[in-house]
Design a protein that fits this description.
By secondary structure, this protein is an all-alpha fold. The protein has a single domain, classed as Tetracycline Repressor, domain 2 (Orthogonal Bundle). It contains 15 helices and no strands. Helix 7 runs antiparallel to helix 8, helix 10 packs antiparallel against helix 14 and helix 13 runs antiparallel to helix 14. It starts with a helix and ends with a helix.
C-alpha cells in the first residue's frame, strides 16, 4: 500500500528523500545502534516496551535533528563549495547515499531545512525529558557542540576533538535513560572508546575524502593541515586505542560477558577498523579513506548485534 501511494505521488517521495538526505538518514539509522548497544551492554536485558518505544523514537529524532543541524550551520560554506565545483551527487560516501547537502544544492530552501530540524529537535527534547531530564541536557550539549564543530571549520583542526565528543553523547544519554545512577568508570570507558572510534574511523577519514575541496575553500582539517602521512598515523593510533577500550567497556559492565563476546567484539574491530586503517596507511588513497569511513560506520551496529545475542540467550 505504501509503495502504491508513493507511486501515485512521486513528487512527495522525491521531496521526502531530500529531507532524509538533509539528516543523512541512512547513516543515522546505522548510528542508532550506538545508544542501543550502550543500553544493552549496561543492562544485560531489554527494557520495558514503553522505554524501548520512547527511546528509539527519541534516538531517531535526535540523530535526525543533529545531522540536519550540521547542514543548517554549514549552509553558507556548503553553498560556496557547490558554487566552486563541489559535487552534489553521491560518490560512494555513506553520508551521500541520497543527495549530499540538499539545501546547498538548491533542492530544499533554508527555511524548509530549519523547520525540519526544529521539529525533530522539539520531539527529541520531549522524549529526552520523559526518559530522564539528564538526557535533555545531554542533547542540548550535543547540539551546542555540533554547532561549535561547524563554526571551527575554518578556525582549527582541533574541531575533530569536538566531533569525537558529540558522537559519544547519544550512548551516554542512553545509559542515563535506563539507569539514573550508572558507573562513572563504565561511562568513562564507553566515552573514550566511542571518542577514538569517531576520530580514527569516522571524522578524519571523512575529511580525507574532501581534502581537495577543503584545501581550496580554506578549511582547517587534520588532513589539510597535517597532511595524509600524519593523518594516517593519527587514524591508526586512534583505532589501536579503540579496540582495548571496547574490551574495557565489556569488563566494566555489571553484566558478566564470557570471553567469547569480547573476542567477537575485538574481531569486529579488526575487520571493520584496523584492517582498513592499515590498508589506508599503505595506499594513502582517497578511496581507501572512504572504505574505512563506510566500513567503520558499521562498528557499533556489529557490537549491538554481539550484545543482543547475549541478551537473547539469557531471556
Amino acid at each position: 500500500m505504501i509503495q502504491i501511494w508513493l507511486n501515485k505521488y512521486p513528487s512527495f517521495y522525491r521531496r521526502l528523500n531530500f529531507f532524509l538526505a538533509l539528516s543523512r538518514t541512512p547513516h543515522g539509522l546505522i548510528d542508532m545502534a550506538t545508544p542501543v548497544f550502550a543500553a544493552l551492554i549496561w543492562l544485560g536485558y531489554i527494557p520495558s516496551f514503553p522505554v524501548v518505544f520512547l527511546g528509539l523514537l527519541t534516538t531517531f529524532a535526535a540523530y535526525t535533528a543533529v545531522y540536519a543541524l550540521n547542514d543548517i550551520v554549514d549552509y553558507r560554506q556548503d553553498r560556496q563549495a557547490v558554487q566552486q565545483g563541489g559535487t552534489c551527487p553521491a560518490d560512494g560516501d555513506l553520508d551521500a547515499i541520497l543527495v549530499r547537502h540538499p539545501m546547498a544544492c538548491g533542492f530544499l530552501s533554508f527555511r524548509e531545512g530549519l523547520t525540519w530540524t526544529v521539529f525533530w529537535a522539539a520531539l527529541t527534547l520531549t522524549g529526552a525529558y520523559l526518559l530522564n531530564p539528564v538526557c535533555l541536557w545531554i542533547f542540548a550539549a550535543g547540539c551546542a557542540l555540533e554547532a561549535i564543530y561547524c563554526v571551527l571549520w575554518r578556525v582549527s583542526h582541533y574541531r575533530t576533538l569536538v566531533s569525537g565528543a558529540v558522537k559519544t553523547l547519544g550512548a551516554v544519554a542512553a545509559i542515563f535513560a535506563v539507569d539514573p545512577h550508572p558507573s562513572a568508570w563504565f561511562l568513562i570507558a564507553l566515552f573514550l572508546c566511542l571518542f577514538f572510534w569517531e576520530i580514527g574511523g569516522q571524522n578524519i577519514p571523512n575529511d580525507w575524502t574532501d581534502v581537495e575541496t577543503d584545501s581550496r575553500l580554506g578549511a582547517k582539517t587534520i588532513p589539510v593541515l597535517l597532511g595524509t602521512h600524519r593523518s594516517s598515523i593519527i587514524i591508526l593510533g586512534s583505532i589501536l586505542l579503540t579496540l582495548p577500550l571496547n574490551t574495557a567497556v565489556f569488563q566494566l559492565s555489571p553484566v558478566q560477558y564470557p570471553s567469547i563476546y569480547m573476542i567477537a567484539a575485538l574481531a569486529a574491530g579488526v575487520y571493520l577498523l584496523l584492517l582498513p586503517a592499515l590498508r589506508l596507511r599503505v595506499s594513502m588513497s582517497r578511496q581507501d579513506a572512504m572504505i574505512l569511513f563506510n566500513r567503520g560506520s558499521y562498528y557499533p551496529l556489529l557490537l549491538m548485534g554481539i550484545v543482543l545475542i547475549k541478551v537473547m540467550m539469557n531471556s
